[in-house]
Every structure is written in C-alpha cells, then in structure tokens.
Give the backbone structure.
Amino acid sequence: MTLLNYYQIPSQIPKSICDEIIKKYRVDLQDAFVGCTNGRIDEKLRQSKVNWINNDSWIAGMMSHFALSANKHYFNFDIDGYKKEIQFTQYYKGDFYTWHIDSDTELLSEDFTRKLSVVMCLSSKDDYEGGEFELFYPASDFKYSFKLDCGDVLIFPSIIQHRVRKIKSGERFSLVGWMGGPPFK
C-alpha cells in the first residue's frame, strides 16, 4: 500500500459561509505561539493570531466530515475524532509559521495520537500575497506548495513537515483541526 501524501478538496464551501466564520472568530484573537522559554514567545518559529472553536460545533463537524471521508477512502488510519478545539488562525502581513509537524511527542498521550491534520482556507487567494502552505517530505527531498483559495481543504498525515510562508500583503484566515486515535502500532 502506498501512503497518500495529501488529499485536497477544492473550494466546496461558499465564500459567504467562510466570511461568516471570519466575522465571528476574528475577535478576541490571541498571539499564537510555539517554543516558549522563560515566559517569552519564540517569534522566530511562528507569528500569527488564533482563536479557538469548540470541537462539537458545526464547523468542527464539517471539517470532521472531510477528514473522515479522506481517511476512509485513502489513509485508513484508526481515528476516533478530535481531542482538542479547532484553531481559527489569522496571518497578517509579515506573519508565518516555520517548518513543523503536528504530531509532536509533547502532544502524544497513551490514548490519543494526532494522525490527520485538516486545514481549510477561509480567504480568497486574491486577498493575500505569499502565505503558501507547503508540505515537505525529507526522505525524497520533495516539497508540495499550495496557494489555498476560499473553501479549499487540505488533509495530510500529522507526521508530515509543513509550514505557512510569510504573508507579503493582505490577510489569510484558516481553520486547522487534528483528528486522531489510539497510538500507531
């Protein structure tokens, strides 16, 4: 069996729905961070703003549908659902997120492992410059680059390195969720 690198669903969600999500969750944004030392955020790793959406909301249900369908037809991982909230993210001019994986050992537990990452773009690709979403496969030294459009969904194994390139102008909004289940055997 060949592991599918990613599964992409092109613009299925109407712009009006994406705009409503942005309007509702772009308030009370917090600085996103990874790598906090002595109470200071490492801004060399990530710059963006986030808000959180309950994992039992209709938005999480929509994203879950896409992930479970892709899993059933392509990935075939043992998945139970979400353990944490869905992340609403705003990238503004100069914002980025360096290479990382979503299945970090600090996030692993005895009963839950992130297995699929689900990204949905809420912005029109004409609303921002830069901000490409990239996947990297070190074993083959191969990189995929995506200029995501409003309603595009990308699903990939959480162990794959990925990043969001620096925003040159405009704003890019997205949703991110992590589906998982028991640890890999």
